[in-house]
Write a structure and sequence with these properties.
Chain A: Keywords: Cell membrane, Membrane, Transmembrane, Transmembrane helix, Transport. Chain A: It is found in: Cell membrane. Chain A: Its main location: membrane. Chain A: This is Carbohydrate ABC transporter permease. The complex is a heterodimer of chains A (329) and B (439). Chain A is mostly helical and 329 residues long. Helices cover 68% and strands 1% of the residues of chain A. Chain A contains 14 helices and two strands; from the N terminus they run ααββαααααααααααα. Chain A has a two-stranded antiparallel ribbon. Chain A is globular, with a radius of gyration of 25 Å. The two termini of chain A are 19 Å apart. With 439 residues, chain B is an alpha/beta fold. Chain B contains 16 helices and twelve strands. In chain B, the strands form three sheets. In chain B, strands 2-1-3-12-6 form a five-stranded mixed β-sheet, sandwiched between helices. In chain B, helix 8 packs across helix 9 and helix 15 packs antiparallel against helix 16. Classes of the chains: A mainly alpha (329), B alpha/beta (439). The interface between A and B is large, with 42 and 45 residues.
Chain lengths: 329, 439
Amino acid sequence: MSSTVERRTDAARSRRPRTILARAPQPDRRRRGRLGRSGRESLTGWLMVSPSLVLIALFGLVPVLWSFALSFQQNDLQTPGTWVGLKNYERLSQDPQFWDSVRRTVEYTVLFVPSTLVLSLLAAAALNRRIRGITVYRLAVFIPVVTSTIATGVIFSWLLDPDYGLVNATLSKVGLPTFEFFASPTQALPAVVLMTVWGWIGFGALIFLAGLQGIPTDLMDAAQIDGCSTRGAFWRIQVPLLRPVSGFLLVWLTINALQLFDEVYATTKGGPSRATTVVVYYLYDQAFKFFHAGYAAAIAVVLFVAIAAVTALQLRITREEPTPQEGRR
Amino acid sequence: MAADRPTPRLPRGRVARRCTAVIAVGAVLLVGVTACGGGKASSDEGTTITVAHGYTDVEAAALKTQAEKWNTDHPTTKVNLVYNGGNDSALQKTVAGFTAGNYPDVAYEYGSSAAQLARQPKLVDLTEKVKASGFNWDDFYPSERLAATVDGKVVGVPALVDNLSLVYNKKLFAAAGVPEPTNDWTWEQFRDASKKLSDPAKKTYGWAYVNDASEDTVWRYLAMLWQAGGDLLTSDNTKPAFDSPAGLASLQQLRDMAVTDKSVYLDTGNGNYLNLFNSGKIAMLWTGPWDLSSINDDVEYGVTYLPGYQGNHETISGPDLYLLFDHSSGRTDTAVKFVSWLTSAPVHLEFAIATGDLPLRKSETELPGYQTFLSKYPAEKVFVANLDNVKHVRPNLPEYAEVSTAVGQMVQSVLLGQAEPAAALKTGSQAVAAALAGS
């Protein structure tokens, strides 16, 4: 009895479809001879990636370390800085404007990430079919992604103009209430969410679509034979199998949401009444408007730690767990 | 300071970001390599100078012509013009350049950036140099000289001068049956006209105010504050002074018009006000010469002084500057010579005729070419006359950016109807005091 169960779980395990983010097989570790074949190979490998490594170190790692050092200084970027120890961090912990910007960033992330995930999934499901002209639709969904942020910002400030915008004109035509959007301290952040969700759906849909197309068709065929409706199969089979993909998107979108800057810079400049001054915008003001570079670096370090923590947490949550049929390992 | 228009940056797709970065890095490396390869060896290195500017279109072409003329007339020196990507971010770019050890000999900067750059160890102190015979420092308008001076030190040479005047659409006034503005208009007349020219049904407004809390929001308020006899800071620049009857009167006027009358279009900083002025949705602007070239040909407009408070029609000017940075004595010498030549009366008048920029020096208005300027740009006459209504300048402090931000937030909160003028003054005043105390 028990053996049949085991066999069945083995079979189930081997039948599990590979999704696009399946773990890469680990290479078996063989002991290397002194620059034997594998040694030479790895040297070649390192040589191949060294240009990228040098660039990443120079333009990624060095600035990161430099800003870390900068965060312990008072520095106006023009005259030699002075070491102030943890003073920037102390001031930061008591800076109400900084905490306001943190609150707004969290608000934005909480609004932006789930809506983008859900809408991307629906868009991907809609695009995952074989009908005439599907490439045109796919292209249409993806266009916002390749549109420059500045262009998007300009277009949206016109679309959402309270007095002359197309959106309000349409709303009032059909007798619905109109909005102030970017002009109102309470509506500006939701308006930025609206704009950025529009800009990111294409990216999310692309990733989800790749995930959906990685799901073997025989699974879906089997579901249909068992009398499962298309909708049911989507929610009960495809969506659960997209788990690693959603995990990746969740992390990716969250990182981007916490670093929101361009869209704010292009539309509201952090206003009105600081309503859209998110953390990175506040950092920008401190660094490049007031030239408090040390203080801004401290903000950057805090943001870096926060993003690292949130990402680690999300990765833990979304890591693949065994499905119930497999039993707990 | 010319208009705070956002300058479009390089388009960046989201996904392509990483590729762009790699390409950019590659480009930087290439540039670096070529610069290292070709820069140091040239024999006249000491007399080749770089001039960074943010001029575009007509102004850029005019400057290029003048630089070429200089290069032809001075074969031993060479001026290289470099576009800085737009003056709105010239300060950021210049400061970043110092960090990277790659900075121009001459940089065009807003006057409001002067105090920030005055700390720069490489900045050339021009205090003695402008006293040289033939420089005629006193020929510059007083507001320009004040803007170029930080703590008694001359840090730059005036590059451009402007001021705020009232620009109005004649057709809209005629249609509404409202008498056109005059140089003697009072705040009350202005408010009254703005109200009559507004129509919520047609979404037309009497006036527009840039309300993004930037310096663009602040300087219009400063003009009103000064008209009412107030000032931004105490005379020693250590404390805020605008929480005063004058400060209250100016904020109250803004509130009356924007919140009570709803006769003001609040521009969110994207510069839509000009398109709306062109399409006849806005009747009056407080703006400077830089906007005139963007007004459509079919809009018949007039220009007057700003409406005044008890007969005071003071306005505000944002002189921009050429700042000089030291590489070597030879290069600095060339830079001083070039800038003196560029800002001398006959040379600048040519530039003004080509571009419509206002004369920089009083003596330009006495040259015969000035009549050509006036006949080519009839509307500029008021702007030139209005230079005499510039009495104050913004305080030249390193903390000015923070002071400006606090005042901008204050004005914005009143215009949006979020705060009463008296309460907003208190809040703004506290924020400015904190900024000045360096906390």
